[in-house]
Specification:
Strand order of the largest sheet: 1-2
Radius of gyration: 24 Å
Number of helices: 25
Structural class: mainly alpha
Strand content: under 5%
Helix content: 55-70%
Largest sheet: 2 strands, antiparallel
């Protein structure tokens, strides 16, 4: 690949790795991946089937956990408002531990039996919007006394029933909705969905996820605008202005002995660094009583001691288990709302699979692997519902991007991440630490995170012709309707009266879910208003998401099932026609999930950051 300009070769490196590399696959029709980088920037230190040294797996596994940190802890913190848990730090810590635990299990299942790419699983914002819409219904409105910290007794039976009844309703809806995703994945129907859903449907759906949460970001940030502004400014500084500046860290090798190694730490951990600095400032201001100690004064909620002795109360070990909040309940309104989020999550994941394959040196995922991936994600949502995270699971785009930073595409690194998240979920003190983050710090993080989610949705319009008045109308109307209708319904909750209580509840949840309203109008208008496939962006969209890998040795090594399962399935002529089974292939293609081929090259110890640095 011929570069168009000079580059120092470090623009997208988090670690200064040397040695042999795997080539990243070129995109179809000869399109270059990035003409602004040197040739070596298009190479991998480890491909998807390679096994890096164990210490590199641990270090990079920790990095992937920290990359997903913001999204994973944000979900239970937002849900705690709808669950009436704002003033119960101990229960919040249990929710955080549970979502870490389930995310780790789902990651291991996805890497071993699902898409089999290095892609991490975690909580999804696509289910957060319908969940909050469900909890905003009149029957689930939090009692007034739960909003007053002085009146909340977290150990009382009455308070536990208040939040656990809401959690059980969420659990049941998520579990039933996940069955639909399991069916769509393992039956191969995801291909049918993709025929009718294009960028003009996806763009408003994803964008409205972030926009609909503006109130949550504003409430948290408004508790102390100075602290929240500092948090936002630090995250922007680290992620945008300092991302190409390396920081020297000590390293050791036999040849160079003790020396320094450059690490692009600001590019890897901008959210964690921003939160940590602001968190530390709040702790110092609390210690010296600079922040007000009167609950009625502005800035009180920026203190770090509001949750009491949550660290002391949290157990060292807490093993989450299914049904820990009671037997789940099911409501039709909740299930229908969750289904809207499930469909959005599935389509987004298909795009993540292709991006992950491209960045990890793997062939484009075949249909049977995509079907398994969606099916396993549905199974992950089922497990998340059973364990009681109040959310589901999906593939994390942030971690797909981290593959391009580290140039390590091995799925063994993600296996290490999954194990680490399970361990974090078992240690109760870990979840308790996160609950002490002041709400203004969380609000500052939300402002950046939700803004990026909204922009990520708009970015899908690059495939459509936005010079077309047709497309401008569809996107504009869908976005505006997705903001206006839910806002009006929330202010006029008694306006929907059909005479059938169940139908009223379904309409209430759907019409207060911004992503559903916007996505619905986008889907209907895009498929009914005349327009060419090129104008609608369908051709460009399908080119990105099309299945262009055949039954090759390379494809089999990456995507075939482990433990000789593929060999067994290919031996039966009728089994190979099942949508999630690999086509007939030689047994030599079979690979072991935890024993891939050996790496092409071992980096020097000097090229690895010491564990104590992380």
């Amino acid at each position: 690949m011929t570069p168009e300009k000079e580059s120092n070769g470090l623009d997208n490196y988090a670690f200064a790795l040397e040695g042999r590399f795997c080539d990243l696959p070129d995109t179809k029709h000869g399109t270059e991946l990035d003409t602004s980088l040197d040739k070596d920037n298009n190479k991998l230190a480890y491909c998807v089937t390679d096994v890096p040294p164990w210490y590199l797996c641990i270090i990079l596994g920790i990095q992937h956990c920290l990359t997903a940190f913001g999204g994973i802890i944000a979900i239970p913190l937002i849900l705690s408002q709808g669950l009436c848990l704002q003033h119960d730090g101990l229960t919040q810590s249990h929710l955080i531990s549970t979502i870490f635990f389930v995310s780790g299990i789902c990651t291991l299942l996805q890497v071993a039996f699902g898409i089999r790419l290095p892609i991490l699983q975690g909580g999804t914002f696509t289910l957060l919007a319908p969940s909050m819409a469900m909890l905003s219904m009149p029957e689930w409105t939090c009692p007034t006394w739960t909003q007053n910290a002085s009146l909340v007794n977290a150990s009382s039976t009455e308070f536990m029933e208040v939040w656990q009844s809401r959690m059980r309703a969420l659990q049941g809806s998520i579990m039933v909705g996940s069955l639909f995703q399991i069916f769509v994945g393992f039956s191969g129907l995801i291909g049918l969905f993709m025929r009718f859903i294009g960028p003009l449907t996806i763009a408003p759906t994803i964008s409205l996820i972030g926009l609909s949460l503006f109130d949550s970001a504003g409430i948290n940030a408004g508790n102390h605008w100075g602290i929240s502004t500092m948090t936002t400014a630090l995250i922007i500084l680290f992620s945008q202005y300092l991302r190409h500046i390396p920081v020297p860290f000590p390293a050791y090798s036999k040849d160079k002995k003790l020396h320094t190694s450059r690490v692009y730490v600001f590019q890897i951990l901008p959210v964690l660094l921003g939160i940590s600095f602001s968190w530390l400032i709040c702790y110092i201001l609390t210690t010296y009583n600079i922040l007000p100690s009167d609950p009625d004064q502005y800035g009180y909620l920026a203190r770090t001691d509001l949750k009491g002795d949550v660290m002391g109360q949290a157990p060292w070990f807490s093993f989450p288990y299914p049904g820990q909040w009671g037997v789940p309940t099911v409501s039709l309104a909740g299930v229908v709302g969750i289904l809207a989020g499930v469909i959005s999550s599935m389509i987004e994941s298909v795009g993540d699979y292709h991006a992950c394959a491209r960045l990890s040196g793997a062939p484009p995922p075949p249909k049977h692997a995509i079907n398994r991936g969606i099916g396993i994600e549905g199974l992950g949502c089922l497990l998340a519902g059973a364990w009681g995270t109040g959310n589901g699971t999906t593939s994390y785009s942030e971690n797909v991007g981290a593959l391009g930073i580290t140039k390590v595409g091995s799925r063994m690194v993600i296996v290490a991440s999954g194990v680490l998240m399970v361990v974090m979920g078992v240690f109760g003190k870990v979840g308790a630490i996160f609950t002490t983050i002041p709400s203004p710090v969380v609000g500052g993080m939300f402002m950046v995170m939700f803004g990026v989610i909204s922009a990520a949705g708009v970015s899908n319009l690059q495939y459509a012709d936005m010079n077309s008045s047709r497309n401008i109308f569809i996107f504009g109307f869908s976005m505006f309707s997705g903001l206006v209708i839910p806002n009006w319904i929330l202010k006029n909750s008694k306006a929907i009266v059909t005479g059938v209580l169940e139908l009223d509840q379904v309409l209430q949840v759907l019409l207060t879910t911004s992503m559903f309203v916007g996505g619905f109008f986008g889907f209907i208008l895009d498929n009914t208003i005349p327009g060419s496939k090129h104008e609608r962006g369908i051709i460009a969209w399908n080119k990105v998401h099309e299945d262009d890998s055949s039954n090759t040795v390379e494809s089999g090594q990456v995507y075939n099932l482990p433990f000789s399962i593929s060999s067994y399935l290919s031996s039966s002529s009728w089994l190979r026609y099942i949508p999630f089974c690999p086509p007939g292939a030689p047994s030599s293609l079979d690979t072991n999930a935890l024993d891939p081929k050996q790496p092409l090259g071992q980096p020097e110890p000097s090229q690895i950051i010491t564990g104590v640095t992380m």
